[in-house]
Amino acid sequence: MARGSNPRGGTTLSRRRGLVRELILAVVADNEARAPFLETWGLSLYLETPEWRAYWDADTSPKVLKHNARLLGVTLKVDYLIFSHRHWDHTGGAKAVRAKRRVAPSDPRFPLPAERVAGPARLAEGLYLTKTLRGEVPERALVVEVDGYGGVMLVGCSHPGVEELYKSALELGLRPRAVIGGFHLTGAPKELVERTLAGLYELGAEEVHPIHCSGHYAKALAKSNAMTGTVLSFGKA
Ligand SMILES: [Zn+2]
Ligand SMILES: [Zn+2]
Asked: Residue 226 C-alpha to ligand 2 middle, in angstroms?
């Protein structure tokens, strides 16, 4: 891990910050899907760069992952399978993914064999894990730094709060422009959804895709239609 000291206190990874040349992000599994994609309550995002390939979380079902990956034309053989947190809707489909490295948070209740990385850590060129936020469910975020775009932050369920996860990226000297994943806001009061999104924009986010456990109101506010089958690209067009 590249870690330098920050004169204002704290640490930063910025001295040896690497970038990926381009990022293609595909939503392989989400609670919302239109046929012929299959739908389950879960989350799995596929990341492809010229430097490496990875999955962020592994949904609920290996069957859904295989089916949707085939439809999207994305591989299930990757360099990294990285988990946000231990819950079944992020780990249940793991056996469908063949990864050279499986990276889990340092959580004694994590259900699968995997390398435990508490974070913060730089896993590969332009690929950063934030520190694990402690609480009832230890969880962290992933940030991909893309040349010509900036940071793309991925979250799982955001049990510690998506703004707290964003702040953990700021602590590394990263200020993600895009945020995608579950915001833990299904059924939340409207004011809380509004406050959370406003907080994210204030911290530095510009493009927000609330999926999985974010609820429809968050999606509408963020003007995002992301769901299973959505492919986003960042960097080189
Ligand atoms: Zn969860
Ligand atoms: Zn979840």
From this structure: 16
Q: Is the pLDDT of residue 55 over 60?
A: yes
Q: What is the whole-number distance in angstroms between the Cα of residue 90 and the centre of ligand 2?
A: 6
Domains, the chain, with CATH or none: 18-229 (3.60.15.10)
H, E, C per residue of the chain: CCCEECCCCCEECHHHCCCECEEEEEEEECCCCCCCCCCCCCCEEEEECCCCEEEECCCCCHHHHHHHHHHHCCCCEEEEEECCCCCHHHHCCHHHCEEEEEEECCCCCCCCCCEECCCCEEEECCEEECCCECCCCCECCEEEEECCCEEEEEECCCCCCHHHHHHHHHCCCCCCCEEEEECCCCCCCHHHHHHHHHHHHHHCCCEEEEEHHHCHHHHHHHCCCCCCCCEEEEECC
pLDDT per residue over 158-178, tens digit each?
999 999 999 999 999 999 999
Ligand 1 centroid from CA 46, angstroms: 19
Using the mean position of ligand 2's atoms as its centre, give its distance from the Cα of residue 3 in Å.
30
Q: How far is the CA of 175 from the centre of ligand 2 (A)?
A: 24
Q: Is the whole-model pTM more than 0.85?
A: yes
Going from the Cα of 225 to the center of ligand 2, the distance in angstroms, rounded, reads 18
- Res 1: pLDDT: 34
